[in-house]
Amino acid sequence: GMNLLHPDPDLASVYEAVPERILGEILKLGNRPDRVEFRSELLFDLTKNALRQSGCTPAMEEDMPLVNEVIRSLFDNLQG
Q: Which long-range contacts (CB under 8 A, 24 or more apart) does 39-45 make?
């Protein structure tokens, strides 16, 4: 998914909502992935228990070339 999280009313509330939001995005996909990869330790830690309970394997991945390419393209487009 590509939804953004807004820090309302505060950042702690956003962190608490992350596992539910991730699982909601998986439900929108219509099928459960075997593996969900993160390069953020914070997101990994916030979601690992919920993902395991739902039958997905959370994994840390430091190198995500396709994600890097998307981010680079997004910034290039934002700069004009």
A: 39/64, 39/67, 42/15, 43/18
With beta carbons less than 8 A apart as the criterion, state whether 46 and 25 touch. no
Residue 73's pLDDT is 92
Q: Exposure of 49 by Cβ count < 10 A (0-12 exposed, 13-18 middle, 19+ buried)?
A: exposed
DSSP per position, 24-38? HHHHHHTS--SEEEE
- Say if residues 37 and 61 touch (Cβ distance below 8 Å): yes
Mean pLDDT confidence for 13-42? 92
Give the C-alpha separation, 51 to 26, whole Å.
10
pLDDT of the residue at 58: 97
Q: 0.70 cut: is pTM over it?
A: yes
- Cα distances from 64 to residues 22, 39, 72, 75, in angstroms, run 19, 8, 12, 17
